[in-house]
Amino acid sequence: MAVQHCRLGVNIDHIGTLREARQQGYPDPLRALPLIKEAGASLVTVHVREDRRHMQEDDVRRLMGDHRLPVNLEIAPRQEMVDIAIAHSVDRCCLVPENRQELTTEGGLDVVSCDDMLVPIVRRLRDVGIHVSLFIEPSLEQVNAAHALSVDSVELHSGVFARTYRHDAHAFETIRACAAHAHSLGLACHAGHGLSYDSASLLARIPHIIELNIGHFLMGEAVFYGLRHVVEHMLCRLKEGRESGIRG
Protein backbone atom coordinates (compact mmCIF):
# COMPACT_ATOMS: atom_id res chain seq x y z
CA MET A 1 0.00 0.00 0.00
CA ALA A 2 1.32 3.44 -0.94
CA VAL A 3 2.33 5.63 2.01
CA GLN A 4 0.28 8.82 2.24
CA HIS A 5 2.12 12.10 2.34
CA CYS A 6 1.57 14.32 5.38
CA ARG A 7 -0.81 17.16 4.55
CA LEU A 8 -0.33 20.64 5.99
CA GLY A 9 -3.17 22.81 7.23
CA VAL A 10 -2.15 26.43 7.79
CA ASN A 11 -3.92 28.20 10.63
CA ILE A 12 -4.32 31.91 9.84
CA ASP A 13 -5.86 32.97 13.18
CA HIS A 14 -2.89 35.12 14.15
CA ILE A 15 -3.35 37.35 11.13
CA GLY A 16 -6.82 37.96 12.54
CA THR A 17 -5.26 38.69 15.95
CA LEU A 18 -3.08 41.39 14.38
CA ARG A 19 -6.09 42.88 12.58
CA GLU A 20 -8.23 42.96 15.72
CA ALA A 21 -5.45 44.70 17.70
CA ARG A 22 -6.34 47.92 15.86
CA GLN A 23 -9.74 46.95 14.37
CA GLN A 24 -8.94 48.87 11.20
CA GLY A 25 -9.74 46.02 8.82
CA TYR A 26 -6.14 45.14 8.01
CA PRO A 27 -4.24 42.92 7.60
CA ASP A 28 -6.94 40.84 5.93
CA PRO A 29 -6.41 37.13 6.77
CA LEU A 30 -7.68 36.13 3.33
CA ARG A 31 -4.64 37.69 1.69
CA ALA A 32 -2.78 34.62 2.96
CA LEU A 33 -4.79 32.22 0.79
CA PRO A 34 -2.97 32.56 -2.56
CA LEU A 35 0.39 32.40 -0.80
CA ILE A 36 -0.30 29.23 1.16
CA LYS A 37 -2.07 27.66 -1.82
CA GLU A 38 0.88 28.34 -4.15
CA ALA A 39 3.26 27.03 -1.49
CA GLY A 40 1.44 23.68 -1.52
CA ALA A 41 -0.64 23.64 1.68
CA SER A 42 -3.68 21.34 1.59
CA LEU A 43 -6.15 23.41 3.61
CA VAL A 44 -6.66 26.53 5.67
CA THR A 45 -7.63 26.31 9.34
CA VAL A 46 -9.45 29.02 11.30
CA HIS A 47 -10.84 29.11 14.84
CA VAL A 48 -13.89 31.28 15.41
CA ARG A 49 -13.91 31.73 19.17
CA GLU A 50 -16.94 32.64 21.20
CA ASP A 51 -15.27 35.95 22.15
CA ARG A 52 -14.31 36.61 18.48
CA ARG A 53 -10.80 37.62 19.51
CA HIS A 54 -9.36 37.00 16.04
CA MET A 55 -11.48 35.37 13.32
CA GLN A 56 -15.02 36.54 12.64
CA GLU A 57 -18.04 34.85 11.09
CA ASP A 58 -17.63 37.08 8.04
CA ASP A 59 -14.14 35.63 7.56
CA VAL A 60 -15.70 32.18 7.31
CA ARG A 61 -18.24 33.45 4.80
CA ARG A 62 -15.51 34.95 2.64
CA LEU A 63 -13.28 31.89 2.94
CA MET A 64 -16.08 29.62 1.75
CA GLY A 65 -16.70 31.95 -1.18
CA ASP A 66 -13.05 31.89 -2.20
CA HIS A 67 -12.87 28.17 -3.10
CA ARG A 68 -9.06 28.21 -3.17
CA LEU A 69 -8.56 25.78 -0.30
CA PRO A 70 -10.78 23.53 1.84
CA VAL A 71 -11.74 25.23 5.11
CA ASN A 72 -11.20 23.51 8.45
CA LEU A 73 -13.26 25.43 11.03
CA GLU A 74 -12.32 25.01 14.69
CA ILE A 75 -15.15 25.75 17.11
CA ALA A 76 -16.21 25.07 20.66
CA PRO A 77 -18.96 22.42 20.94
CA ARG A 78 -21.74 25.00 21.36
CA GLN A 79 -24.94 25.28 19.35
CA GLU A 80 -24.21 28.90 18.37
CA MET A 81 -20.90 27.85 16.83
CA VAL A 82 -22.38 24.78 15.14
CA ASP A 83 -24.97 27.09 13.57
CA ILE A 84 -22.12 29.11 12.01
CA ALA A 85 -20.47 25.99 10.58
CA ILE A 86 -23.73 24.81 9.07
CA ALA A 87 -24.81 28.24 7.81
CA HIS A 88 -21.62 28.56 5.79
CA SER A 89 -21.37 24.89 4.75
CA VAL A 90 -17.74 24.54 5.83
CA ASP A 91 -15.80 21.59 4.51
CA ARG A 92 -14.60 20.39 7.88
CA CYS A 93 -15.29 21.15 11.51
CA CYS A 94 -12.94 20.37 14.40
CA LEU A 95 -14.52 20.57 17.85
CA VAL A 96 -12.12 21.99 20.44
CA PRO A 97 -12.35 22.92 24.12
CA GLU A 98 -12.48 26.63 24.82
CA ASN A 99 -11.78 28.77 27.88
CA ARG A 100 -12.14 32.52 27.48
CA GLN A 101 -9.21 33.20 29.81
CA GLU A 102 -6.74 31.04 27.87
CA LEU A 103 -4.12 32.50 25.54
CA THR A 104 -4.48 29.50 23.25
CA THR A 105 -6.17 26.10 23.36
CA GLU A 106 -4.76 24.44 26.48
CA GLY A 107 -5.64 20.81 25.86
CA GLY A 108 -7.92 18.35 24.17
CA LEU A 109 -11.62 17.68 24.61
CA ASP A 110 -12.44 15.21 27.35
CA VAL A 111 -14.62 13.09 25.09
CA VAL A 112 -14.92 10.35 27.70
CA SER A 113 -16.67 12.69 30.14
CA CYS A 114 -18.73 14.79 27.74
CA ASP A 115 -19.78 12.28 25.09
CA ASP A 116 -23.51 12.74 25.85
CA MET A 117 -23.20 16.46 25.12
CA LEU A 118 -21.26 15.82 21.91
CA VAL A 119 -23.66 13.27 20.39
CA PRO A 120 -26.27 15.74 19.05
CA ILE A 121 -23.59 18.18 17.90
CA VAL A 122 -21.67 15.56 15.93
CA ARG A 123 -24.93 14.27 14.46
CA ARG A 124 -26.04 17.76 13.31
CA LEU A 125 -22.75 18.40 11.55
CA ARG A 126 -22.52 15.00 9.90
CA ASP A 127 -26.15 15.11 8.80
CA VAL A 128 -25.35 18.08 6.55
CA GLY A 129 -22.20 16.47 5.15
CA ILE A 130 -19.55 18.25 7.22
CA HIS A 131 -16.45 16.20 8.04
CA VAL A 132 -16.22 16.14 11.87
CA SER A 133 -13.01 15.93 13.86
CA LEU A 134 -12.41 16.02 17.61
CA PHE A 135 -9.33 17.69 19.11
CA ILE A 136 -8.26 15.28 21.85
CA GLU A 137 -5.40 14.44 24.15
CA PRO A 138 -3.24 11.57 22.85
CA SER A 139 -4.90 8.86 24.91
CA LEU A 140 -6.20 5.47 23.80
CA GLU A 141 -9.27 6.02 25.97
CA GLN A 142 -10.03 9.33 24.24
CA VAL A 143 -9.52 7.77 20.80
CA ASN A 144 -11.97 5.00 21.68
CA ALA A 145 -14.52 7.53 22.91
CA ALA A 146 -14.16 9.56 19.71
CA HIS A 147 -14.66 6.43 17.62
CA ALA A 148 -17.84 5.65 19.53
CA LEU A 149 -19.25 9.00 18.42
CA SER A 150 -18.77 8.06 14.74
CA VAL A 151 -16.64 11.09 13.89
CA ASP A 152 -14.50 11.12 10.76
CA SER A 153 -11.15 11.93 12.34
CA VAL A 154 -9.30 12.90 15.49
CA GLU A 155 -6.67 15.58 15.92
CA LEU A 156 -4.14 14.74 18.61
CA HIS A 157 -3.06 17.62 20.83
CA SER A 158 0.71 17.78 20.37
CA GLY A 159 1.44 20.43 23.00
CA VAL A 160 3.23 18.16 25.50
CA PHE A 161 5.23 16.55 22.72
CA ALA A 162 6.24 19.96 21.31
CA ARG A 163 7.55 21.04 24.72
CA THR A 164 9.41 17.84 25.62
CA TYR A 165 10.50 16.03 22.44
CA ARG A 166 14.13 17.20 22.64
CA HIS A 167 14.78 15.41 25.93
CA ASP A 168 12.01 12.82 26.34
CA ALA A 169 10.67 10.31 23.79
CA HIS A 170 7.62 9.35 25.85
CA ALA A 171 5.21 11.87 24.31
CA PHE A 172 6.27 10.88 20.81
CA GLU A 173 5.66 7.20 21.52
CA THR A 174 2.26 8.02 23.04
CA ILE A 175 1.23 9.91 19.90
CA ARG A 176 2.57 7.11 17.71
CA ALA A 177 0.50 4.53 19.61
CA CYS A 178 -2.66 6.65 19.48
CA ALA A 179 -2.27 7.32 15.76
CA ALA A 180 -1.87 3.60 15.05
CA HIS A 181 -4.90 2.82 17.20
CA ALA A 182 -7.03 5.48 15.49
CA HIS A 183 -6.03 4.03 12.12
CA SER A 184 -7.00 0.53 13.25
CA LEU A 185 -10.47 1.87 14.13
CA GLY A 186 -10.89 3.54 10.75
CA LEU A 187 -10.36 7.08 12.05
CA ALA A 188 -8.19 9.51 10.10
CA CYS A 189 -5.54 10.93 12.42
CA HIS A 190 -4.28 14.52 12.46
CA ALA A 191 -2.15 16.38 14.99
CA GLY A 192 -1.41 19.95 15.94
CA HIS A 193 -0.45 22.55 18.56
CA GLY A 194 2.89 24.13 19.30
CA LEU A 195 4.74 22.54 16.37
CA SER A 196 7.92 23.91 14.77
CA TYR A 197 10.00 22.74 11.81
CA ASP A 198 11.85 20.17 13.92
CA SER A 199 8.93 18.82 15.95
CA ALA A 200 6.60 18.68 12.94
CA SER A 201 9.21 16.82 10.90
CA LEU A 202 9.49 14.27 13.69
CA LEU A 203 5.72 13.73 13.85
CA ALA A 204 5.63 13.33 10.07
CA ARG A 205 7.63 10.12 10.56
CA ILE A 206 4.49 8.51 11.98
CA PRO A 207 2.75 7.01 8.93
CA HIS A 208 -0.73 7.08 10.43
CA ILE A 209 -0.65 10.85 10.98
CA ILE A 210 -1.91 12.15 7.66
CA GLU A 211 -2.20 15.86 8.51
CA LEU A 212 -0.61 18.49 10.73
CA ASN A 213 -2.28 21.83 11.49
CA ILE A 214 0.19 24.59 12.29
CA GLY A 215 -0.30 28.32 12.79
CA HIS A 216 1.61 30.31 15.42
CA PHE A 217 5.09 29.11 14.44
CA LEU A 218 4.49 29.70 10.73
CA MET A 219 3.14 33.21 11.29
CA GLY A 220 6.07 34.06 13.54
CA GLU A 221 8.61 32.88 10.96
CA ALA A 222 6.68 34.66 8.20
CA VAL A 223 7.47 38.02 9.82
CA PHE A 224 11.11 37.46 8.92
CA TYR A 225 11.07 35.20 5.86
CA GLY A 226 7.68 35.62 4.19
CA LEU A 227 4.63 33.39 4.40
CA ARG A 228 5.05 31.49 1.15
CA HIS A 229 8.67 30.67 1.96
CA VAL A 230 7.96 29.32 5.45
CA VAL A 231 5.03 27.18 4.26
CA GLU A 232 7.20 25.74 1.47
CA HIS A 233 9.98 25.03 3.97
CA MET A 234 7.58 23.37 6.40
CA LEU A 235 6.30 21.13 3.61
CA CYS A 236 9.89 20.18 2.75
CA ARG A 237 10.51 19.26 6.38
CA LEU A 238 7.32 17.16 6.48
CA LYS A 239 8.42 15.35 3.33
CA GLU A 240 11.85 14.68 4.81
CA GLY A 241 10.28 13.41 8.02
CA ARG A 242 7.89 11.10 6.18
CA GLU A 243 10.67 9.68 4.02
CA SER A 244 12.82 9.16 7.10
CA GLY A 245 9.97 7.27 8.76
CA ILE A 246 9.56 5.06 5.69
CA ARG A 247 13.25 4.19 5.71
CA GLY A 248 12.92 3.33 9.39
Keywords summarizing the entry:
248 residues, alpha/beta, eight-stranded parallel barrel, 11 helices, 8 strands, 49% helix, 17% strand
Could you outline the blueprint of secondary structure elements for this entry?
Blueprint lengths: L6 E5 L1 H10 L10 H7 L3 E5 L9 H10 L4 E5 L3 H9 L4 E4 L15 H17 L3 E6 L3 H9 L4 E5 L1 H6 L5 H15 L3 E5 L4 H7 L5 E6 L1 H10 L1 H21 L1
Parallel strand pairs: 1-2, 1-8, 2-3, 3-4, 4-5, 5-6, 6-7, 7-8
Helix pairs in contact: 2-11, 6-8, 9-11, 10-11
- Total helix count? 11
CA-atom Rg in angstroms = 17 Å
Main sheet: which strands, in order across? 1-2-3-4-5-6-7-8
Major sheet details: 8 strands, parallel, barrel
Percentage of residues in strands: 15-25%
> Please, what is the oligomeric state?
single chain
Structural class of the secondary elements?
A: alpha/beta
Task: Output the helix-strand order.
Answer: EHHEHEHEHEHEHHEHEHH
Low-confidence parts: none
Mean pLDDT: 94
Q: Kindly, what is the distance between the CA atoms of the first and last residues, rounded to a whole number of angstroms?
A: 16 Å
Question: How many DSSP-defined strands?
Answer: 8
Proportion in helices: 40-55%
**Broad shape:** globular
3D architecture notes:
There is one protein chain. The chain is of the alpha/beta class and 248 residues long. It is built from 11 helices and 8 strands. The chain has an 8-stranded parallel beta barrel with strand order 1-2-3-4-5-6-7-8, surrounded by 8 helices. Strand 4 (92-95), helix 5 and strand 5 (131-136) form a beta-alpha-beta unit. The protein is globular and about 50 Å long. The protein starts with 6 loop residues before the first strand and ends with a helix. The model has no long low-confidence stretch (mean pLDDT 94).
